[in-house]
């Protein structure tokens, strides 16, 4: 009997079961010994964190990590979800803090609804955001201390799979791995969970934090799962994602249009069965076209062998998702979510509607022309067509829906406000990112 | 008449003189137009900053930038000297904050005494340190914003001449240029002064800060001047530097031993005449061996032509320096400086004295041996010889001068303190850098 076997026998059956639940479907786990010890310790509640930047909107791809987080909660772990609002801010410096605040609220509501719809206890589920501590004196001190101990090469390597690889990489890309490592300390967690693309950052944390006497955590890694409707489900590509709050018809249409080739079985549809459906349904069977499947491998084999029709496979998944998202949407049917969505994602669609070719540009009178010139001379970021329409609306005395875009230092903002309040005019500006500034 | 000539005529004689004083002896200046405009503006006091990391001790090489700062003060500028204590801390993470605090006090006293001894008005001279604001939320936010806009390559290039070039460069080296650029904003200055080795950092500041709407400053650059007794005067090489508070005989000996080759006229001795002596003495003449020199170029030529004796040249410089440093030492002859020096630089010289071969190691009794073992088991950083001597001193009931080195997190420090207070013992530790931790 090997030493490892002896050790195995030392832990209780319950601990082993709990650990198996925590580790199932993961691609890799570091520090399992430590985790096991914590699970064995009476009165200890092991604490894990998962982080996400609040850039786009939660899509159904989130169900894969959420299903894992459901396992953690089911296993009795304390789970903290970190919304990296500071990272989101830095990622797109055009996002205002007001907007990012609303997005954090939106993310929290949707993710909470997702987990509740997965029928797991959420009394040990906590949410926080990066700006709660990432600009604190102590955190900054630790970031600087880390930066004095981590080489440029190591920081670069750590972020290689996560940080956008552009022609001229930004310095922030080197800092992110350090920030993420330090989050473990400041969230007071015992371990971190993420995609296996985070592996090098996890390794950096395991190597560097102990040098600053900031502890070493265990790390759990999900495999990288292809998106349902594309090679990678991205919140920034409208066509490739299914929004968590999408209407049933949209969900059905997108899934039926998804790639699910028998030649490339590593597709999103099959992955979803593996990482979302089976963990939810087990130990019951999934029944499609009168065939019972108790395990993913059996279903996959049947599909690859042609014993399972593509349409049937997709339809079952679509109905499953629609049913699940129905519950999520019901939980999100409240003013908090509506307001957060409106404030956090108010698209420039309205501006596009206004500029549809059907509506001709209005004629301006002398007064309006003078105002137009005055306003134009004060700003370089101006859409002429929008202005003409706005002036028309103002001249018709209708209420005007406006967005004021604060740019630059207080003085110039104040100047602009004064100018516009004097003129009774505002302008609508289209951002390059198709999202409000 | 060109446009530039026209412009020249627009400024007053007084502004031109002031500007000439500010710009004399500099190697390069950026944004002189802006500076000139500020000098012309009634009621405006232009504000410049110069920064230094409080690592070693101010040596006579500091007289070169101080002489320039004297020009700035004479010209009526407001001058802020920034002590980069955070940089010093990160540069050598073994430095305790307590020690760095004392060093800042020491630097401030000595530099103030230097400038006073140069007979310039110091009512517009201010001192501050990096930790006053460099760990603030706003500053950190700006550092992160900058890091999201500056490429790794640009940060690397900016710091190339200033940041230590080691085999595996640290991430902190990429951050320093950003911090230094932001200092301009947080010190609310109009311009920055530094060695021409800072040029790329200054350029980074001029290019990047405006993108964050944080203003663009002018930059004044001193040439790189060789050290008096070596190719570069470094505070970390004992033999190559003359401490500002060195005794006259030490100063004389070091200067007489300095290289001053006619084949290599870019030496420290001649440079000192150019950048320190002449600016101080002018418009009077420097008289050596009955020869009058009103300008450095004339003196240099005489020396190169062999019309001026090397010994005479060095002796004059030595006496000049001794005379100047006499005044500085007199101003520093007080308890504040003494205490700051003791706390900030308590060298291990004492420990070396103790370990001189004349004094044999004491015999330990049984009790002392037990203590020794107990203490040794608790720490890996221990000098056996020192311990034996310390134990001897303790056993003789003499008061023991100690330095407690706090390392690691609070718990382990507390443990160590408890251990040592129980044992009535402390230890002296020799740092690798030949300076106390």
TrEMBL record, chains A, B:
Gene3D superfamilies: HUPs (3.40.50.620), Tyrosyl-Transfer RNA Synthetase (1.10.240.10)
InterPro entries assigned to the protein according to its UniProt record, in alphabetical order: aa-tRNA-synth_Ic, Rossmann-like_a/b/a_fold, Tyr-tRNA-ligase, Tyr-tRNA_synthase
Pfam family membership, one: tRNA-synt_1b
EC number: 6.1.1.1
Reaction it catalyzes: tRNA(Tyr) + L-tyrosine + ATP = L-tyrosyl-tRNA(Tyr) + AMP + diphosphate + H(+)
Name assigned to this protein: Tyrosine--tRNA ligase
Subcellular location: Cytoplasm
PANTHER family given in the database record: TYROSINE--TRNA LIGASE, CYTOPLASMIC, TYROSINE-TRNA LIGASE
Upper lineage: Eukaryota, Metazoa, Ecdysozoa, Nematoda, Chromadorea
Organism this protein belongs to: Caenorhabditis tropicalis
Family: Belongs to the class-I aminoacyl-tRNA synthetase family.
Keywords attached to this entry: Aminoacyl-tRNA synthetase, ATP-binding, Cytoplasm, Ligase, Nucleotide-binding, Protein biosynthesis
GO biological process: tyrosyl-tRNA aminoacylation
SUPFAM superfamilies: Nucleotidylyl transferase (SSF52374)
Keyword Protein biosynthesis attributed: yes
Record NCBIfam families: PRK08560.1, tyrS
């Amino acid at each position: 009997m090997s030493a490892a076997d002896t050790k195995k026998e030392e832990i209780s059956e319950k601990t082993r079961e709990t650990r198996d639940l925590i580790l199932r479907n993961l691609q890799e786990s570091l520090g399992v010994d430590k985790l096991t010890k914590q699970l064995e310790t009476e009165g200890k509640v092991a604490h894990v964190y998962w982080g996400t930047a609040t850039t786009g909107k939660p899509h159904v791809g989130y169900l894969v990590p959420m299903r894992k987080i459901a396992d953690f909660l089911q296993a009795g772990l304390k789970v903290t979800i970190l919304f990296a609002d500071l990272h989101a801010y830095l990622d797109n410096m055009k996002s205002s803090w007001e907007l990012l605040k609303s997005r954090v609220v939106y993310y929290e509501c949707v993710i909470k609804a997702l987990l509740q719809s997965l029928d797991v206890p959420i009394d040990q589920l906590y949410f926080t955001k990066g700006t709660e501590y990432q600009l604190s004196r102590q955190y900054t001190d630790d970031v600087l201390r880390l930066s004095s101990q981590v080489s440029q090469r190591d920081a670069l390597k750590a972020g290689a799979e996560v940080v956008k690889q552009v022609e001229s990489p930004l310095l922030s890309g080197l800092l992110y791995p350090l920030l993420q490592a330090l989050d473990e300390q400041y969230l007071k967690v015992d371990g971190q969970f993420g995609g296996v693309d985070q592996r090098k950052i996890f390794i950096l944390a395991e190597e560097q934090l102990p040098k600053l006497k900031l502890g070493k955590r265990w790390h759990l890694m999900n495999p990288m799962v292809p998106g349902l409707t594309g090679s990678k489900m991205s919140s920034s590509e409208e066509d490739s994602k299914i929004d968590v709050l999408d209407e049933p018809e949209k969900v059905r249409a997108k899934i039926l249009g998804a790639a699910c080739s028998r030649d490339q079985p590593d597709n999103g549809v099959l992955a979803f069965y593996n990482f979302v459906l089976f963990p939810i349904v087990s130990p019951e069977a999934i029944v499609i076209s009168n065939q019972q499947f108790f395990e993913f491998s059996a279903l996959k084999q049947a599909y690859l062998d042609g014993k399972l029709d593509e349409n049937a496979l997709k339809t079952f998944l679509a109905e499953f998702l629609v049913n699940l998202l129905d519950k999520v949407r019901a939980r999100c049917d409240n003013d908090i979510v509506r307001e957060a969505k409106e404030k956090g994602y108010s698209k420039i669609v309205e501006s596009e509607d206004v500029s549809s070719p059907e509506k001709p540009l209005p004629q301006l009178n002398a007064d309006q022309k003078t105002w137009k010139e005055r306003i134009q001379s004060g700003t370089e970021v101006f859409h002429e067509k929008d202005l003409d329409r706005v002036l028309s609306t103002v001249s018709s005395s209708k209420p005007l829906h406006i967005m004021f875009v604060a740019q630059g230092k207080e003085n110039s903002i104040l100047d602009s406000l004064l100018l516009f309040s004097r003129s009774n005019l505002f302008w609508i500006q289209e951002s390059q990112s198709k999202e409000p500034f």
